[in-house]
Amino acid sequence: MSASAPSPARSETAPPPPSTPPLPLAELIDERQGEQVELLERTMNPRFAKVLRTIGFDRTIVRAEGAYFWDARGRRYIDMLAGYGMFNIGRNHPVMKQAIADYLALDDPVKLQLGACLLPGLLAEKLLEQVPHLDKVFFTNSGTETVEAALKFSRAATRRERVIHCHRAFHGLTYGSLSLNGCNSFREGFMSLLPGAVAVPFGDLEALERALTEEKTAAFVLEPIQGKGVYVASDAYLLGAQELCRRHGAQFVLDEVQTGMGRTGRMFAYQHVPGLEPDMVLVSKSLSGGYVPVGAVLYRDAVYHKVFSSLDRSVVHSSTFGGGGLAMTCGLATFHILEHERLVERAAEQGRKLLEALSALVQRYELLQEVRGRGLMVGIEFGKPRSLGLRAQWHMIHAADPSLFAQAFIMPLMDEHGILTQVAGHQVDIIKLIPPLTITDDDIAWFTGAFEQVLDAAHRFPGPVWSVARKLLAFRRGKQHT
To answer: Is residue 330 in some structural domain?
Structure first.
């Protein structure tokens, strides 16, 4: 008898192998719909649940499409936040949904780990087409992971420890990226951070030069437009920073996690500036259209050879999930949609219209100080009013809590007009707009008309905006004791 004799045939009367029934996902969601905030409070983050209830953002959202979503009552909202910039192509794009279904139907291995898959190479090739001065791609799972990788790569490439970042910067919340954050509210309570992280004022080339001269530096990590406040770096500053980094042997790293993938009217924000060629470009958020966690570091061959310096160091930095097939499919689909629908060009055009419409309000309303931005990344900044009655209330609110005033605008925008926005940072009087790149002229009119109504109310004293501010102040005082 052969040692490799085949197994006996299965009896025709043998029971079938056990099978797992499908997950009744739709039924589960239908049965539990409306419990979102209660579950958040009970199982994850009760204080955040309280915040949502206090500001009126505890809605039961049941459907989304493009730049809109709907609550359980059928009310439509416009999304001027886009998941902090994840949904540049809009939510539930049919081409993206089809690409995901097509990928799952392939029974792809997803990732071999010890082996090479096709899709990561295809997406890396597509990314490098956008930045022809760079040579290699390293895939991560998030924006903060791209920053962590850039820190490691910069230190390995330069054999230096020190890293420079800017005041007001936001680069993520894991320990390395947290060390580069310019906002102490995110850092407080987490003890010692990354050694060698040094902050300089945003836009100040003299301060940057002093910092680079004081000690040898591995990298200068910079957002071309700071997300916390929507502060746009000038062309001269970006080019000057690049030249200083070259002169002092530091890596010039641009964090395009929020500004990339068409947000500013170019594929990447740095491409507005002729001659700008950063050593690394960090990408995430909308690279996958918002569907799957993904990130990428785009960098030079010279850095690659210092990091992955030998065969036994070929996996010296890696990620279990980085470069997974579903994420890569979503990245390729995102590029496909951006190109075929000309959404990068659309961001430039619609952003111009939005900026023009909002800028026209600055001269009419004393509470408005400035409107700024690039493409569909816009900051609306309030300022101290001239009239005595409004000024007295302004001072009273800011003396009590500098974070309240802008919040008192986003609440009526949501409650009365169905518009989701956000305050652009801690203790700033700035609202940030980062809508999907698909917004229409009607959407712009929807937002600007609603914002003008809220502004009108804010210039009446006492009025609803001031009442909201007092409500928030009472909540802030109360939460100190909870």
So the answer is: yes
